[in-house]
Amino acid sequence: MHVHFVAVAGTGMGSLAGLFKAAGHRVTGSDVAFYPPMGPALARWGIEVREGFSAANLEPRPDLVIIGNVCKKDNAEARAAVELGIAYTSMAQGLAAHVLLGTSPLVVAGTHGKTTTTALAAWLCEGAGLEPGFLVGGLPKNFGASFQLPQRGHAGPRLPLAGTARGHAQAQAPTRKVPFVVEGDEYDTAFFEKTPKMWHYRPEVAVVTSIEHDHVDIYPDEASYLAAFAGFIERVPEGGLIVAYCGDARVVELVVRHARAEIAWYALDGDELHGQAPHWLGALAGSDASGQSFDLFAGGVMAGRVAIQLSGAHNAKNALAALAAVCQGFGVPLATATRTLARFEGVARRQELRGEVRGVRVYDDFAHHPTAVRETLRGLRARHREGALFAVYEPRTATACRALHQAAYVEAFDSATRVVFAPLGRTNIAATDALDLDALTAELNLRGTPAERAPSIAAIVTLLCRDARAGDSVALLSNGAFGGIHEQLLNALGALR
């Protein structure tokens, strides 16, 4: 089959194109530009690409066109596909119809932690020999690619699992097909199908990590955002499993109200549990430059101390969710899973150390929501207790550039020694609705956290080269490329005399 992707250079679209190519299809695609890392990756995977959007890109006529959700209804190429009567679909529908069939989907949803938890679950399945498929919205370092085809026909095991949700000593997970682990994005699918992507993936095992109003360009109020997750929870069948974080009141409310499947709650010791008894509980033990450790309790039974190479309480929660999903959902022995967990190397752009020059560590992280910013900085401070922690933040998303979370950002930077704000990434937001960086800077300074605004990437690099010292850490926080600041800073630090 010849499959053509309109707007192929996005992270999700490009990875799906790679999956189709790996499955033996002819794959072509178009986009306005092909910047690294996706541009070179598409070439490496053997995908034929054309720059720009045009009806001419549909020659020769493909069998199927997959249209990215960045495309508007007036996109010339998308419109031509519709008018020519070519079969077309969205990324989410294409994945569901052509890849997920014959698998047991494990879908990870939630405002925070989706990418890391998805990558963790895929790695745990891989370590147990389940030969999973996966599609992750980031690059899992253990795999070296953001996607993998499942080994079709590989049956899930029926293996003993000590201490499951119901506390049985030797319970068994249901027999399932080969797992396909997918990140369940709540963003909408395409201009012609305005439902959340995660609704289309038919989860047999689902994870709900957190629910906190986001994507205000799609969900103008909290009620609409909650409805998206309610619909996802309802789609998990009675024979399925929902792994849910009971430290989040919204998660508990929606799961209790809408779940048909069995529920496995997870939490950290000390969390507010909102009336639920966690089946999977972690008690934080220690955190240093090597990562985070915690004591694991499964079904009320002490299961030993677990170590991960990632830092912070939020990553311990991500690990708990992944362990619960693969052990209780697919019958992976807990001892196998915890051994595999210790070898997980993380995901690119999640607390990723891009380099260390003259003793200054430069980290890259995708954090943009205030909760993610707070947890990322806490994790980095726990990893590096000595030296200053510079937090450099670019507000770039439709939500981050608005005043919706103005107050929350004040506390999000508490773990930082010093904060620097780049300019807002969007200029089309009315001043009355925009995040007020002047007010935020003033509030942080009043709290005792030195903060300032910088007019440009070059100004930020100059500031950091002047003030960062050996032993300090710099956290560059943005959901975008941040103007290439990572390499600029490392090069500038290296050029200092």
Tell me about this structure.
There is one protein chain. The protein has helices at 11-22, 38-44, 76-83, 91-98, 114-127, 222-234, 249-258, 313-330, 334-341, 370-383, 406-412, 437-446, 457-467, 485-495; strands at 2-6, 26-31, 48-51, 64-67, 88-90, 104-109, 133-135, 147-148, 160-161, 171-172, 179-183, 188-190, 193-196, 205-208, 241-245, 262-268, 280-288, 291-298, 301-308, 352-357, 360-365, 389-393, 418-421, 451-453, 473-477. It is an alpha/beta fold and 497 residues long. It has 3 domains: 2-89, NAD(P)-binding Rossmann-like Domain (Rossmann fold, 3-Layer(aba) Sandwich); 100-341, Mur-like, catalytic domain (UDP-N-acetylmuramoyl-L-alanine:D-glutamate ligase, 3-Layer(aba) Sandwich), CATH 3.40.1190.10; 352-495, Mur ligase, C-terminal domain (Protein-Tyrosine Phosphatase, Chain A, Alpha-Beta Complex), CATH 3.90.190. The protein has a 10-stranded mixed β-sheet, with helices on both faces. The protein has a 6-stranded mixed β-sheet with strand order 20-21-25-22-23-24, with helices on both faces. The longest helix is centred in the middle third of the chain and has 18 residues, at 313-330. It is globular.
